Amino acid sequence: MPELSATALRVPASGIREIVNLALSRGGDVVRLEIGEPHRPPAPHIAEAGAAAARAGTGYTQSAGIPQLRAELAEDLRRRYEVAVSPDRVIVSQGAVQGIAAVLAAVLRPGDEVLVPDPSWPNYEMQTLLFGGVPMRYPLRPDNGFVPDPAEVAALVGPRTRVLVLNSPGNPTGAVTGRPALHRLVEIAARHDVLVISDEVYDEVLFEGEPAALCQLGAPHVVSVFSFSKTYAMTGWRVGYVLAPPWLAPTLARLQEPFLSCISGVSQAAALAALSGPRDGVATAVAEYRRNRDVAVRLLADAGIHPVVPDGAFYLMVPLAPGVDSRRAALDLVGHGVATAPGTAFGDVARAFLRISFAATEAQLVAGLDRLIAWHDKSGGGAVATEGVGR
C-alpha cells in the first residue's frame, strides 16, 4: 500500500472529538456539555425554506455562492456594521471552517508561520499543518482575561510569519477583545505584511463589549470570517462566509471549485431565509445564553470555583487544581456522567482547565454542573481522581 503523506500525518486528532466519541458510546446517561452546539433547532422559517428548496429540487450552484445570498450578506454587513461591501467580496463557504481553509490554502507556502491564539479552536493549527505551515502560539493568559497582549504578539512576528489569526468573541474562552487592542494587532500585522484572519463566528453572541467588526477598518490585509452555525443554530446546515479584500476574493471563489464545487443549494436557501426573515429568535437565544452563563458562574462560585466570566460566545473555562492534566480529568468525568472539553485540546495555556458549553437547557446545565462540582469536590479539582486515568 502507498504511504500516507507526511503532511497528513502531522495533523493531530481533535481532543474535543475524543470526548464526543466517548460520550456517545456511553449513551444517554452522560450530560453533554463538551460540544459547541446550540440545543435549539433553527427557527421554523429557516427549516421550511430548506425543505421547500429540497422539495422543488436543487442542483449545482455558483461555486462562490448564489448571487442572491451573496448580495444579502453584503447588505447584512452594511446594516450591522455600516460598511459598503460589494457582493463580489463575499464568498459562501461550507461553514467557517472551510472558509478559513480556503484562505490558508490561498496564501500559505511551505514553512510559513501562522500565529494562533493559545488557547484556541484546534482547527486553526490542524489546517495550518495540513497546508504545510507552522503554527506559532501566542498566549491568552487567564490573569489577563484570556485576551491577547499586542506586545507579546508583536514579539513573535518573524520573517516567516504569514498569517495572524484573531478570534473575538473567543472559542474556548468566550473572551471579548476590546477594539483598541484588536486595531493595534491589525496595525502590527500591516507593518510586517501579515494577513489577518478575523474569526467572528460568535459576533452576534455577545453579553458585554462590542463585536470585533474589523471589516469597518477597510484594511486590505484583513479577512473576516462568519458563520450561520451559532447565530442561527444551523450547525448541521454547514454555511459560512468570508469577507475578503478585492485582491483575494477572486482566488477564494476559484478555489471553491476544487474544494467542493459549491455549497448545498438547500442550505443556501435556508441561509437566505435566516437573513431575510424574522430575527427575534437570535435575541431570544442570546438572552438564554446569558442566563445560563450567570447560572453556571453562580453555581461554580458557590462551590468555591471561580472561572473568568465570559463576555460572549457560550463557553466557560472551569479551572482545575494546578498541574492537573485536563484530558485525564475529562476522561474521568465522562465516567461520572458529564462530558466536558479538556483544555489540552486548545493549546498549552489552559491545560488545567475544562471548557463547558452552556448552550444547553438550564436543566441540562444544572445537572451537568452538579456532577462536575461533586467530582471537583471529591477529587480536589482533579488532583486525585485523574491519577492513572488515560495512561
Automatic annotation (TrEMBL):
<keyword id="KW-0663">Pyridoxal phosphate</keyword>
<dbReference type="InterPro" id="IPR004839">
    <property type="entry name" value="Aminotransferase_I/II_large"/>
</dbReference>
<dbReference type="GO" id="GO:0006520">
    <property type="term" value="P:amino acid metabolic process"/>
</dbReference>
<comment type="similarity">
    <text>Belongs to the class-I pyridoxal-phosphate-dependent aminotransferase family.</text>
</comment>
<dbReference type="GO" id="GO:0008483">
    <property type="term" value="F:transaminase activity"/>
</dbReference>
<dbReference type="InterPro" id="IPR015421">
    <property type="entry name" value="PyrdxlP-dep_Trfase_major"/>
</dbReference>
<dbReference type="InterPro" id="IPR004838">
    <property type="entry name" value="NHTrfase_class1_PyrdxlP-BS"/>
</dbReference>
<dbReference type="GO" id="GO:0030170">
    <property type="term" value="F:pyridoxal phosphate binding"/>
</dbReference>
<dbReference type="InterPro" id="IPR015424">
    <property type="entry name" value="PyrdxlP-dep_Trfase"/>
</dbReference>
<keyword id="KW-0808">Transferase</keyword>
<dbReference type="InterPro" id="IPR050596">
    <property type="entry name" value="AspAT/PAT-like"/>
</dbReference>
<feature type="domain" description="Aminotransferase class I/classII large">
    <location>
        <begin position="29"/>
        <end position="370"/>
    </location>
</feature>
<keyword id="KW-0032">Aminotransferase</keyword>
<dbReference type="Pfam" id="PF00155">
    <property type="entry name" value="Aminotran_1_2"/>
</dbReference>
<protein>
    <recommendedName>
        <fullName>Aminotransferase</fullName>
        <ecNumber>2.6.1.-</ecNumber>
    </recommendedName>
</protein>
